[in-house]
Amino acid sequence: MGSAPWSDGRPRAVYLGDAVERAVKILIVGHFAVGKTTLVGALSEIPPLRTEEIMTQAGALVDDLAGVTGKDTTTVAMDFGRLTLNPRLVLYLFGAPGQQRFQRLWRDMAYGALGALVLADVRRLDASFPVMDMVEEYGLPYAVAVNQFDGVPAFDTGAVRGALDLLEETPLVVCDARDRASAGAALITLVQYLHARATKEHP
Amino acid sequence: MRPPRRDSGLVRPYVVTGGRAHSRISFDLVSLVITVDDKPSGGPEAGLSPEKRSLLALCRGGALSVAEIAAHLALPVAVTKVLIGDLTDSGHIVTRAPASPATRPDIQLLQEVLDGLRALV
Ligand SMILES: Nc1nc2c(ncn2[C@@H]2O[C@H](COP(=O)(O)OP(=O)(O)OP(=O)(O)O)[C@@H](O)[C@H]2O)c(=O)[nH]1
Ligand SMILES: [Mg+2]
User: What is the predicted ipTM?
Assistant: First the structure.
């Protein structure tokens, strides 16, 4: 691994190891300010990066270098980070906005993703509904992680499961998105679930 | 660096519509991009746009994903994909398609992800 010498303000490129041959991705999704960027940052081996997509109001991605100027376009940011899992395999974590109008963006993000970790805040569970609809619409298997913000009163996980209408098999964990071990445990719970699910489907 | 591998599953990176190249979903956000070493620098690169030259300069340091390239160049992903499509066609770079377990869950791959995470966090 090395670094590009010229970065001006932006984080320097941290290159992948020479032996890396496969990349996988997991989406970290959730409503506004639920802790997506925080969780990606807590786990990433590189300073989290941000991409911006320019989209037309109709939801098309703008792929012309000149872009489209003016009121008809909007910018959508995606934060992401990276974890080298072994010399051959790297995992990317994408913090994805939950808004339903970004259909094209979602299609691109969900394509080939292993699954999604849905971050939720018990004080506003209803804000998670559109996000969960998106995840389900794109057929992504998911686990739910309740981000434990300071000062949030104790809550009953059964009630949360009920409010979110989770399947019995869907894992629900509590985490602190700022804490690497806690965020990592939530991610491991998701992957364990993905593994168990795959084993059940293709024994 | 190992010799470039041709991925048989790789679709032609773009179709030309109305005289302009539009990227399709053939490069994923996590497709890995590698420059082709034996391409003589200088000559053929002189005709490239500044964006393409920046992309090659960035990628010469080592492998990066499409998303990382877009972030470092501060370009939208869709634009970055078009540039990568062009540079793949011109033989300057090769891309490595990501693992795509969407169609059939790959138990071994998931086990590898799990082992990696457990060792790291
Ligand atoms: N106390 C506490 N604060 C948190 C936690 N996670 C995130 N925060 C704070 O909550 C705020 C929002 O977190 P972000 O990570 O930016 O949330 P986000 O989901 O990326 O937000 P958007 O991208 O704007 O939708 C920040 O000020 C974080 O510092 C947590 O687990 N505990
Ligand atoms: Mg964010």
Answer: 0.89
